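for the writeup, i need someone to sanity check this before i put it in the appendix. the sequnce is what the collaborator sent (i think, or maybe the updated version? ugh). structure was predicted straight from it, no edits. if anything looks off just tell me and ill rerun, i have time this weekend
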Amino acid sequence: MQQIKRQWGWIVVSVLVWGGIAGLACSATVPGSPDSEAKAEEPVGGADDEESLAKPDAEKDPLTQAFEAAMTAAQLAQSATTANEWSAVATAWSEAIQALQAVPTDSPEWLFAQRKTREYLNNQEIALQRVEASARLAIFPPLGNDILDEQLALYLSYVATFDTPDIMIIGSSRALQGMNPQILQQRLAQQGYTDLRVYNFAVNGATAQVVSFILRQLLTPEQMPKMIIWAGGSRSFNSGRFDRTFAKILESPGYAAVQAGDRPTFESLTPLAATLETTDAVSATGRDKARVLPVSSINGYGFLAVNDVFEPNNYYRSFPRVAGAYDDAYQNFNLEGVQAVSTRAIAAFTRTNNIPLVFVNLPLSEDYLDETRLFYEQQFQQFLAQEAQAGGFILVDLLRAWPGQNNLFADPSHLNRVGAAQVAIRVSEDDAIPWTVLVDEATLTGDESSVTAEDSE
């Protein structure tokens, strides 16, 4: 009888949910977030086969409790707009998931409950994205790069939580997904450096000019780490290429705010007034400070884990194979120019402020390193060696560390999650890096930075 009632209830609820909340994922999205173009079929409130039965909670079986919690989530999602309201939706989905997991493994309903859990987890994830999108207002005018804006907000939140990190990883997208800060922190702890904290502040497209801007102009002295690991490759140093990332920064309201003397903090209140005409200042400040930041998959330590595995036969079915001679990353290859000037400025800045600087030349796949690219990369290796000696920083050259090991790459030039773990392990084991200078200054304990074992396999 109960099974019949459930089936009837699922039909009623299906009409209720899809008649009243179809398109909820789209209509309830915070304007300006990446989810603002989400399709109506996203199951934010999709409790399409749940029923509420009038029994005390103690007498209800796990499936009934799960369905009631899912119905609550669906109903709350219909009107949710604020971070607190979306948080209540996420909490309801969490209760539904917990109830499903209480179904005994020997129950005939167990397999259904496990499959339903997958759906609820997806719904909860969407609700959590809404929480973040609703709550995270920009604390600084835009800097012409969404990832830079997001990383800045995440970094300041990290600093507010744990204080400044001992080690900051910085660089382009290759660093963003190419060095896992939690693995580095974990491996250093195994060597006795138990209190060191690591954050990855890498930004898509970050050239030497961009890194120089972040370190020397954007961040305050109080926000600086005790050691900097700059990870990347030759494309960030080619002065013969037009630096689109830095050009967009130069044109941004955030850059104008920096030039006017403002710096990003949670108390920053005067980003644009000194740089705009009076008639524009109020409206522009309100627009830029109140805009919603994008929500990406970057985690709380600034790292983007990518699970893709580079398989050349499959990869080149979707993407054209470009020979090095036609790769615009090496267009007008020139290692003496504005990027070299910025590199030397960074080295001088870190020396002046007694911040050890380490540059990690990240690996490239053997498939990527054809004769032309290898020729340019060897020039870059020589450039790095000369600059490291002249600038007093440490060089860790991993360019050809793993020939033929495509399982460590997400694409020909970017590492995946496993590769990022391997880079962190190699760096942690490098005796040339003065880890000991950080020991006396590391004070924080209890920073939860656990990672799964498979990350370091």
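The beta strands are 167-171, 198-200, 227-232, 357-361, 394-397. Residues 2-135 form one domain.
thx in advance!!
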